[in-house]
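Reminder: ligand-aware prediction takes two inputs, not one.
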Amino acid sequence: MDAPTWPVEFADRYRERGYWRGETFGGVLRERAAAHPDRIALVDPAPRRRTRTYRELDEAADRLAAGFAERGIGRGDRVVVQLPNVAEFVEVVFALFRIGALPVFALPAHRDTEVQHICSLSEAVAYVVPDELAGFDHRALASRVRKNCPLLREVFVLGDPGEHTALADVPREPSGPLPGPEPHELAFLQLSGGTTGVPKLIPRTHDDYLYSLRGSNEICGVDGDTRYLVTLPAAHNFPMSSPGWLGALYAGGTVVLCPGPEPAVAFPLIDSEAVTLTGLVPPLALLWTEAAARGEYALTSLRLVLVGGAKYSEQAARRLEPALGCRLMQVFGMAEGLVNYTRLDDATETVVATQGLPISPDDEIRIVDDTDREVPEGEFGHLLTRGPYTIRGYWRAPEHNARAFTSDGFYRTGDIVRRAPTGHLVVEGRAKDQINRGGEKIAPEEVENIILAHPAVHDVSLVAVSDEFLGERTLAHVILREDAEPLRPADVKAFVRSRGVAAYKVPDLVRFVDAFPQTGVGKVSKKGLRSAAAAPEQH
Ligand code: OOB
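Here is what comes back for the chain with OOB:
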């Protein structure tokens, strides 16, 4: 088996309670297209405004599915999808859902190192890319990755295909219904934020993910009149399902694809497309709050903004509602499953100071000490969780699973939380070795391994330093080899960049040291490094 799943007694209970309804994504789109064929499902505003009705989206998915199937892509095959916020992203994903092939969601920012790893680990047979994005040639990246991944048979390119296959040449007239996936089967693989040298893949089923959408829609009041703006990268779990573009489509609403998250791009779209709902990470929420105060855009259609992905300061949260003229909801979620929201009828104090309550009455929450014993009510501890949309294990990672899950199936989130008197969760910190750079997750070990490959570097440790705007930034402490030529911080950054990784993983700061502070057991003391980090930086 590729990943552990729910024991049968849990699966039975989740079905009995109506969480898992035996729907599939392909089936849901078919039903919505039959119920309201001419309603607008997608608005893709750039470079020239295009729309897709539910019928058009349904038919586009069918034709693409037939084309993929003709090229030998079938049930259970993995296909890495790395596309920006465009209509074709949604069409490709629904086409793959229909044939039961699994999209593996890469972020547009990912480069050779990440894509190579994702393709190898998932044993992907195909990879879907744009031709160029933000001045970067994804076709060339695909050519390089393909050399190292013998199983990768096809590269589909949105736009000019170069040596690969044009996505536009794939669609075929469907010759009949394709044998689709079962609701309990996997729908896709999502990337974990990661705490180890390499990210893990998160296997989500149709049943479990659709339940999280239904639950999110109910909490956020999403219905056929909702117009959801996809501000963050569509491949991330938050804008996908909290309640996200998939939630909006589930409810028969309209999804507006935003080409960039900055106010100058998003605000005119909110006004022209009458956007009602969106989701933001805290640094963006800050930017939007400041920009809205300038009053250049009416933003009157906006009803609700969700903020999550990293801790949102209470101070910043208080300013959002008056500035944007809409409701705020905090969301504390994870691609592994559990999602918490504050509620529309919560008092302002609760909305600005807590990270919410779980979606489901069957989300089991334990707050424990270092020995897995429950802490007294109201005190903080490690958050463990189990439930109808939280995975029981990562994809093909048995050793990691033994550490990341308890023997009775609780996921160790790595987050430190406490319960407010209202029962709402408050995120107090993090026990996992991960840096949260404004919602973008960085596993220090991954970046350290890259820097260690530099011939002049003897050792390195990457830590978080607090940052007013991003929450956290990265600082690399580097010990050079004794005989090495001196390096400048810029050389280390350039080296990381040259290895082909997402730009957000390039250290923000680099400091050269002679030794790391040691802990009692002789391990690098990251805590010591963090407290030493207040000293002025070198350039
Ligand atoms: C979301 O998902 P991931 O998988 O990128 O990251 C999950 C981690 C959590 O374990 C926690 O450490 C952190 O991100 N986090 C928050 C937070 N929301 C997420 N920390 C503090 N306050 C919050 N509100 O980030 C994600 C997935 C679905 C919905 C929203 C966010």
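The domain at 435-532 is CATH 3.30.300.30 (GMP Synthetase; Chain A, domain 3). Residues 193, 237-238, 242, 308-311, 330-335, 339, 355, 413, 415, 427, 430, 436, 439, 441 surround OOB (CB under 6 Å). We will return to this case in the review session.
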